[in-house]
From TrEMBL:
Gene symbol of the encoding locus: cdd
PROSITE patterns reported in the protein's UniProt record: CYT_DCMP_DEAMINASES_1 (PS00903), CYT_DCMP_DEAMINASES_2 (PS51747)
Keyword list, A-Z: Hydrolase, Metal-binding, Zinc
Species of provenance: Pseudolactococcus hodotermopsidis
Enzyme class: hydrolase
One BP annotation, GO: nucleobase-containing small molecule metabolic process
Protein family: Belongs to the cytidine and deoxycytidylate deaminase family.
Keyword Cytoplasm in record: no
NCBIfam families given in the database record: cyt_deam_tetra, PRK05578.1
Residues at the catalytic site: E55
GO molecular function: cytidine deaminase activity; identical protein binding; zinc ion binding
Named cofactor requirement(s): Zn(2+)
InterPro entries, per database record: APOBEC/CMP_deaminase_Zn-bd, CMP_dCMP_dom, Cyt/Deoxycyt_deaminase, Cyt_deam_tetra, Cytidine_deaminase-like
Protein name: Cytidine deaminase
A GO cellular-component term linked to this record: cytosol
Length: 129
């Protein structure tokens, strides 16, 4: 998927974020290898620890739909510089996505920073069984 479309999908996801506390919407567009796009937004809770980020929302929607093979993800924030996922999201992404999977980080004006899952979280925790 082209960056322009990935940006639009992630920005669209942010438009429905539930952010009554931070007023900081974030959106993610996770593209499965079969072409399906799973959008996620951040969903806050008065008990802040129960808040869920956009990236995890997208992953959980895909996995709960039986999809676990992914091609790329775009993450959008209403920020001046491209936004980066938190540590929890990085670990969840590392659980389901190959290290070489492309990641596009977007700012509010569409500036993009390209990286990979492995670069976002080198030495991530892996199944040790």
């Amino acid at each position: 998927m082209a960056d322009t479309e990935l940006f639009k999908q992630a920005r669209n996801a942010a438009s429905v974020a539930y952010v009554p506390y931070s007023h900081f919407p974030v959106g993610a567009a996770l593209v499965a290898k079969n072409g399906l796009v799973f959008q996620g937004c951040n969903i806050e809770n008065a008990s802040f620890g129960l808040t869920n980020c956009a990236e995890r929302t997208a992953i959980f929607k895909a996995v709960s739909s039986g999809i676990t093979d992914f091609e790329t993800i775009g993450i959008y924030g209403e920020t001046d510089e491209p936004i980066s996922p938190c540590g929890a999201c990085r670990q969840v992404l590392a659980e389901f996505c190959p290290d070489e999977m492309p990641v596009s980080l977007f700012s509010k004006d569409g500036t993009v920073k390209k990286t990979t899952i492995g670069d976002l979280l080198p030495y991530h925790f892996k199944d040790l069984t």
